[in-house]
Write a structure and sequence with these properties.
The complex is a heterodimer of chains A (336) and B (137). In chain A, helix 5 runs parallel beside helix 6. Chain A is α/β, with parallel strands linked by helices and 336 residues long. Chain A starts with a helix and ends with a helix. A 7-stranded parallel β-sheet of chain A has the order 4-2-5-1-6-7-8, sandwiched between helices. Chain A is built from 14 helices and 8 strands. Chain A has 2 domains: 234 residues, Rossmann fold (3-Layer(aba) Sandwich); 31 residues, no CATH class. The longest helix of chain A is centred in the C-terminal third of the chain and has 29 residues. Chain B has one domain: Cobalamin-binding domain (Rossmann fold, 3-Layer(aba) Sandwich), CATH 3.40.50.280. Chain B has 5 helices and 5 strands; from the N terminus they run E-H-E-H-E-H-E-H-E-H. A 5-stranded parallel β-sheet of chain B has the order 2-1-3-4-5, sandwiched between helices. In chain B, helix 1 links the parallel strand 1 and strand 2. The chains are: A alpha/beta (336), B alpha/beta (137). The interface between A and B is medium-sized, with 35 and 32 residues. Strand 3 of chain A pairs parallel with strand 2 of chain B.
């Protein structure tokens, strides 16, 4: 074991921070470090928190973490913010809402920019989660703006996913559009101190009760087990159900947080007792394997292609000499 | 394949509430391709040291317009040293009288940027600091 890994496992926060940087930068030593850490992982409960900008995710994570700390659980937080596609820079401001957690040695907050697509954001996040898991935290919370596919991918590293909504952001059709029913294990209507919270709760419940086939199928594949909403036809009694609860919270007034912690614990129990957690983990590993394989193959292939060859092909495609798919087929033949 | 991004903490210690300068710097550095961890107003020395540690930043930028820099900066440096961040440089921006610059430099501040500094100057300064650091590693 390298010195840094040893220090990390023993609880050095500086070693932990440095290892996270190493992984994030895809430093040449990153892979070996992850391999050494891997046996120490698998103990943390991973929570995903996502939702539209301005729904109060960071404040909610702040309140939730305080509640978990009262139960003497240690908490690590990865707050993901987007990298500017133009400059490659980012402003990471989630810590502003988490100042209450300052000075607590049982909490570790790390801001992370999505950076380029190189290697995939989900892969990078997964690796960061593992580092924090190996460092011995009871909970690892991944917070991300739920605005697109990459965020959904990030959330698919979590065992329990909270989708945060706020009143007045859109009607129930927006809710279907965003696909939130598919990824949420718990739906949270935050900023419940504002007008319209009850209506948001009602429309989310109504959407859940619709139980349309798409969400049905999604639930099956999401947890590997059949789950259904109350309006669905009756099913055999051995089928495990998890109906995402819709909760109201006000993070800044610290309301509804106790109930949220209870529901997270219930979901955790549900997954562990039904054995679904093993299936879920297996499915995540499968997704990850394919992703890594894809990336490795891509690197292997692109390393064999010269820039001039690519430019020639681009020109051929542009001048309509050849179509893109035929060009790719020919390239693959050449590479084999 | 290594991807390196400069990580900079921008913090406002003490009690003054004027954060426009800090925000302009944060944005300029973002536009220069850096990852800026912005911690907001009224940060204590311990909060700054802790954020610098957890975020593993390359440099800490402090914006101080209250005139309390001679009190705040040494405490922040001390808190950072206690957190084993002796190697993380501090730069200061804001209203800093020329007479204080030498003293700040003795406290381990590597750069002081007063009114009239262009954001490009700060960007270039940070880039140079990071190039030095990476050279040392």
């Amino acid at each position: 074991m390298t010195n840094q890994v040893e220090l990390l496992v023993k609880g050095s926060r500086r070693a932990l921070a440095r290892t996270l940087t190493l992984i994030e930068n895809q430093h040449p030593q990153a892979q070996a470090t992850l391999a050494q850490l891997y046996p120490h992982t698998g103990k943390a409960w991973i929570l995903g928190v996502t939702g539209a900008p301005g729904t109060g995710k960071s404040s909610l994570v702040n309140a939730l973490t305080k509640a978990l700390r009262e139960q003497e659980k240690t908490v690590a937080i990865i707050a993901v913010d987007p990298t500017s596609p133009f400059s490659g820079g980012a402003i990471l401001g989630d810590r502003i809402r988490m100042q209450d957690l300052s000075g607590d040695k049982g909490v570790f907050i790390r801001s992370m920019a999505t950076r380029g697509s190189l290697g995939g954001v989900a892969t990078a996040t997964r690796d960061m989660v593992r580092v924090l898991d190996a460092a011995g935290f009871d909970y690892v919370i991944v917070e991300t703006v739920g605005a697109g596919q990459s965020e959904v991918d990030i959330v698919r590293t979590a065992y329990t996913t909270l989708v945060i909504e706020a009143p007045g952001l859109g009607d129930d059709v927006q809710a279907i559009k965003a696909g939130i029913l598919e990824i949420a294990d718990i739906l949270v209507v935050n900023k419940a101190d504002r007008n319209g919270a009850d209506q948001t709760v009602r429309s989310l419940r109504a959407m859940l009760e619709l139980g349309h086939p798409a969400s049905w199928e999604q639930f099956v594949s999401h947890h590997g087990r059949l789950m259904e909403t109350p309006t669905m036809p009756s099913t055999p009694s051995d089928v495990t159900l998890w109906i995402p609860p819709v909760l109201k919270t006000s993070a800044i007034q610290n309301e509804g947080i106790t109930e949220l912690v209870i529901q997270i614990e219930k979901h955790r129990q549900h997954l562990t007792e039904s054995g679904t957690v093993a299936q879920l983990e297996a499915r995540y590993i499968e997704i990850e394997l394919y992703e890594r394989l894809q990336q490795a193959l891509m690197r292997q292939v692109t390393s064999q292609l010269s820039e001039s060859l690519i430019q020639t092909i681009i020109n051929q495609i542009r001048t309509r000499e050849i179509d893109p798919q035929t060009a790719v087929n020919q390239l693959l033949v050449q590479l084999n | 394949m290594a991807i390196r991004a400069a990580r900079v903490l921008i913090a406002k210690p003490g009690l003054d509430g004027h954060d426009r300068g800090a925000k302009i710097i944060a944005r300029a550095l973002r536009d220069a391709g850096m990852e800026v961890i912005y911690t907001g107003l009224r940060q204590t020395p311990q909060m700054i040291a802790e954020a610098a540690l957890q975020e593993d930043v390359d440099v800490v930028g402090l914006s101080i317009l209250s005139g309390a820099h001679m009190t705040l900066v040494p405490r922040i440096r001390e808190a950072m040293n206690e957190a084993e961040l002796d190697d993380v440089p501090i730069i200061v921006g804001g209203i800093i009288p020329d007479d204080d610059k030498a003293a700040l430099s003795e406290m381990g501040v590597v750069g002081v940027f007063g009114p009239g500094t262009s954001t490009e100057m700060i960007r270039d300064f940070i880039n140079k600091l990071i190039a030095q650091k990476d050279g040392d590693d």
